[in-house]
Amino acid sequence: MGMTAILAALVSGGVIGLILGLVGGGGSILAVPLLIYVVGVGSPHAAIGTAAVAVTVNALAGLVGHARAGRIKWRCAAVFAIAGMVGAALGAELGKAFDGKRLLILFGMLMIGVGLSMLRARRTADAPDVRLTRNSAAVLLPRLIPIGLGVGLAAGFFGIGGGFLIVPGLVLATAMPLRSAIGTSLVVVSALGLTTATSYAASGLVDWGVTALLVAGGVAGTIAGNALGRKLGNHKGLLEWGFAGVVIAVGGYVVASSI
């Protein structure tokens, strides 16, 4: 690997980590384009496998900070992750049978839709104390399971961690505040990423050298993202608008470049 490629991989890792630390998911959605266009990984499949490993490690690193701050709703995360893993397995099979270019156009349109839905004012108030208990299961499970399944399906279908879908999905299902959804989403990102990473690593589709550089850059980025997230925590609207804006912009780019 040349010096430029090493630097590109470190910087890309930093960007992915920063986004994971700041908004929970969404790192993997940028990881694949960064690996192909910036680092120069030749095969899209190798890019997906490499990104999956790096994103999983970075998500686990980010998880520690959120867990210490007590922002993770573990039971909600577990139900959402299990439903998501079932969806991801189904989605991956469907995705393989689809034309790559069409997949990207659909993917971009899905991102734009998700971004726009996040900009709509929420009708329900935040529920910071929401927990999955025997009493709340009747209300929460019928929301968590189908939404988790849907997010997993999309993640498997498009070969992404689905992080940018997990945060709005958790908010939609439980009305938990954005900061809690970000921390909780990292549990789901790790579970889904691990599923994808294991499958690709078994097929020899992971570039371990690039993975190591992405992780090194990512750890630094995650720390910065967590710190920035704490500062922006007081400006709640700013974080939500920023996240939605990034999702819409990347979605637009993906659609434009595929057409």
Q: What does this protein look like?
A:
- By secondary structure, the protein is mainly α.
- It has one domain.
- Helices cover 81% and strands 0% of the residues.
- It contains ten helices and no strands.
- One of its GO terms (cellular component) is plasma membrane.
- This is Probable membrane transporter protein.
- Belongs to the 4-toluene sulfonate uptake permease (TSUP) (TC 2.A.102) family.
- The chain crosses the membrane at residues 6-39, 46-66, 72-91, 103-121, 141-174, 181-202, 208-229, 238-256.
- It is found in: Cell membrane; Membrane.
The total number of structural domains is: 1
What is the overall silhouette? globular
Rg over CA atoms, rounded to whole Å, is: 17 Å
Order of helices and strands: HHHHHHHHHH
Q: Total number of helical segments?
A: 10
Output mean pLDDT: 82
Spans where pLDDT lies below 50 across 5 or more residues: none
Largest sheet: none
How many DSSP E strands?
A: 0
Helix content: over 70%
Sheet/helix structural class: mainly alpha
Strand coverage percent: under 5%
Distance between the termini: 32 Å
